[in-house]
Each structure stands twice: as structure tokens, then as C-alpha cells.
User: Fold these one by one.
Assistant:
Number 1:
Amino acid sequence: MDDDRFSILRRLAAAAPDATLAGIYLWCWINPLGWRKTLVAELMLVMLVEFLVVHSGPFLGVLVMGEDSSVSRATRLKMLLGLGAIYLLFAGGMSAAFETWGPVLVFVWLIGAKLFAILLGRAQDGAEQTRQMALWGLSVLFYLGAVFATLLLPVPEFGVTRHGHAYGVPGEGEWVSHPQTVIAAGLLYFGALALVKLLENPAWWAKWGTAQAAQSRRSSSAASR
């Protein structure tokens, strides 16, 4: 893998979006009404949409990064549109609940980026594919870890002292009754992603790829017995 991808400037640029979001979650946790009265609801929506993004990542990504030459570009486009339609149903449900087109627009952007990559025939080298899959695996781990940790452990309210309905959050549930939990989860999740992207180096992903290859060989050997 080209080490230039891991220069400090590139790592700072990669980490900046997640670090910015983590900062917004921290600010909201301390002063939820200081910027926007609906900020708690909007940040909860970000976490819900992120779940769709994380869940759909491997299914959509393999259509872009896959190297199977037997699958035509037209077939990959149809598969992507089919999967995208399924996930868009969930995004549409979120949009209806929160009375905003935000989730649909975000997911349409995601699908559009994948479509553009397929139309261009853009392929990533093996090392970059390994890196992307490793980052996806970590995002799943961080998301689940952040959500379960904030649901199972006591989370201080700080400035988020009201019921979710007071901040414009619809529905019912733990995140609605105790909205500080989703704010804390967002801070942990995006903060962890930013830290990994800031500190990452090629050795991490090389080791991950070696471990995955070894696991695949063991699985294949066990299946052939």
C-alpha cells in the first residue's frame, strides 16, 4: 500500500469529519439547546442513518470492489439498485417518523456514489480493499460497543435532562426516554472512528489481511474434510 496515503495531512483529513461530529455530540451533551432546539433529535437521526450505512457497507461495497469478472457491469448495477431499494424503505420509515427527508437524501447520496464508481469501472487494489473492509469491521464493532455500553452502563445527563419529546424526538424507547444515551453513543462511536483514522498505519491492515487469509484457509480446510 502506498505509504503516502498515511501522511499526517491525509490522516488529519480522513479523521476530520468524524472528529467534527464527535465534537458536536459532546457540545450537545453539555448544552443541547445552545445551537438548535432540535439538535438532539437530529443527532439521534444521524446515529439511525449511520446504522443503515454500517449495515449496508459490505453488501454495497462488494459490488464496487468485487473483482469477479464473470459479473457484468449491468448486473452489478441491477444488484446495487435492488439492495438500495430495500435500504431506502428503512430510510423512508425514518424520514416519516422524524418528518424530514434527511435519511432518504443521505442514503441516496450513498447509493449514487456506489453507482458512479461502478459506471466508471473504478477498482481498488488489494491492499486498499483490505483497508476498507477492516475499517468497516471496526465501524461495526465501535457502533455496537458504543450503543450497548451506553444502554447498559449509567450515563450522566449533563445538559440533556429532559425527555426526548422535549427535543423534538418522536416515538418511544430507551433513546427517547433517556436521550443522553444516544448522544453519548454518538460521541464514543465517531470519536473512536476519528482516532483510528488519525493513528492508522499500513502495518495494521497488513496484519488484519494476513489474519483474515489464515482464517479463510482454516475454514476452507475444515469444510473439505
Note: DSSP finds eight helices and no strands in the chain.
Number 2:
Amino acid sequence: MSGTTTPVRLDGEAIQDPYSFYQQLRVEAPVREALMPRGLKVWMVTRYADVRDALANPTLHKDMRAARELIARHSPEGASDGVFGSDLVAHMLNSDPPDHTRLRKLVAKAFTMRRVELMRPRVEEITSSLLDALATKDEVDLIDAFAFELPVTVICELLGVPHADRDDFRVWSTLLVSADEAAKVHEASVAMAAYLHQLIATKRAAPADDMLSALVQASDDGDQLTEVELVSMAFLLLVAGHETTVNLIANGVLALLRNPDQLATLRENPDLLPGAVEEFLRYDGPIGHATLRYTMEPLELSGTTIPAGEFVLVSLISANRDPDRFPAADDLDVTRPGGGHLAFGHGIHFCLGAPLARLEGQIAIGRLIERFPDLALATDPAELRWRNSTLLRGLESLPVRLR
């Protein structure tokens, strides 16, 4: 069958209460048409087996520069709205081989396990400084005071972005990954692109010991990175390098505070922390859906045929709560055997920054719960609001009491 039901809308309760929403879809219509908040029509994939297959399926394409006609056809907003018409889309996450292979190779060395482990002392240092600042307060928004500050400082230092500029790109980043109206998103994309063009010019004129300078030099040495590819790569590393880890930390802390037995188990057994971070990623991961893919030939999943020329949106958070893959999938269990979750994707687009996100998550959450034994939510959980984004699964704020 194909296209026989009314498309579901991916806004409202689908953002605020996604797990009930996707539980129903997995049972009743695991592959079905959906409308994204700005009206783009997609095919939603929700079961673990289908999601994993789709993430690694080479017949699903990601080159958004070649998909503008599809965007125009499937969205009332048109191809030029939002971020799709900007200089920010030509990065490796929106590319197919061989471009993807070439782009990923340029940054892969910076995110090896060995290179990331060398960053541990600096991550520990930043975390300790932030915790010292928290210790002077009784109540804070943990996102503003901690979960944002750690990863944004790390990625700025890694890329060579001036610390003073981070508030600007936080505003742009928030809009670019949101489901707000296309005009606002497009305005933010123009501002972010202009900033990155200028930053790259600065690195070209005065190279430093940072990743962005290295990418500029690699381009100048004949690795065939265009100016637009440089801007897009800087955008991807900057936004993905902090947005996802902010949500990993905040969502993980919220999960523990709402499951005090699991918090107690983790405090009593700190050696469980690496596995616990994997459970946080599975239980309430930082990414709601993978970035868009599209078909160039019909694709069958769970008995449903997705026609050629259609966008496909795979739900990572739905797959990670699929009881066919994870027993008691809706329960947080910090002793659950790790592995298998799809929070970082799967296949050739598996998140390059996963080792760094894991390191930051382990240090941040581990040191926080150790430093503040009376840590507690400072609001009714029902009052918490999730960001208006189909891409990210992140809180707008997380008020906590520290003592």
C-alpha cells in the first residue's frame, strides 16, 4: 500500500509527548506519510528494524543541493525558503559518496578515540570550573548554567571560534534547527553564513592551531573544498558539536531526576557511568529524527512502498523505544547492556563526534551528581517544555535545585 491514509502532523503533541505518538505509529502504521511543521511532506519510519535499514540504505540519498526541486514539489514554502537555499547545506551530512567520503575524511582524524581522549583533561577542567560557579547558587537553569556552557566551550576551542561570538551563533543555531516559520530560519541562515565566511577569511589570513584553520589550509593545498563547502562544514561542526551534547546532558539529568532509584544506583556504582550514558542516549536521545533522505526509486519497508521522488524521515527516538529491540523499552535502566541504540545514527553517516559527546556526557553528568547530592527538579515535570524542533529532542530550560 502507499499513500492511503491522511498524513500525520509532526508538531504539537508529536514534539511535547513523542513517545506516546510513536508507540501508536509503530503498531498501526510504521511507515506512513507525515507533514513537517512548515508543511513539507515526508514518509515517516518508526520501527527499529526499518529505521536501521533506512539509515544504511545506499538507495536513499542525502544530497540536498540536488533535491531542491523535490523540496519545491513537497512543500508549500518552496525550495528557496528556510535553510535549503543557503550556503549551509553543502556539508557531509547532506552529501552522498564520493563527496561525502572526501568531506568526512578531512575531519575524521580530529574525532578519533585517541584524539578525543587527549581532550579529557580540558573537559574535566571546564566542568570543574562550571561546577564551582554552580556551587554559589541554590537554584539554576541547568541548561544555561551548565549543559550549554560545557560543549559550546569545547567546540569553540576545537574549531577556533572566538568565545565572545558564541551567544550570536547560539541564537542562530536555535532558529536553524527549529520548526519556526521559514522566513526566520532563512534570516538566521544568512546571518550564520555571513559570520562563517568572515571567520574563514580571518583563518586564511592568520591561521591558528585549530580545526577550522586546518580545513582552510587543506582546501588551499588542493583538497578541493570550495568556499561554500568550508562554510557548510564549519556550520555542521559548530552546531552539531554543541547542540547534541547540550541535549544529551540535560535529557540525561532529567531522566535521572525522574527515576530516583536509577540515580541512586548510579551514585552507588560510578563505574556504571559509561553504560548509563548509552542508556540516556537510548532512553531520551538528543536527536529526534535523522536529517532528511529521499528516494530515487521505490523503496519497500514493512509492507509499505515509498514511491520514487519522496522524502524519508526516520525517527531515532521511536526506534530506540521499540520493544521489539529493547525489552522494557520505556524504562530507564542504567544497568542495561549497552549497544544497539541509534542515537548517533548508523551507516556511513554515523555521527563523527560520538566519542567527544560520550566523553563530555560522562564527565558532565558524573561530576554533577557527585558534586550535588541534593540535586532535584525545581519545577513540576509537567511544566517542562521541549524545543519546537523535529530534528532535536531538547528542553527549553531545566530548572533545578542544587541544595
Note: The chain has a mean pLDDT of 90.
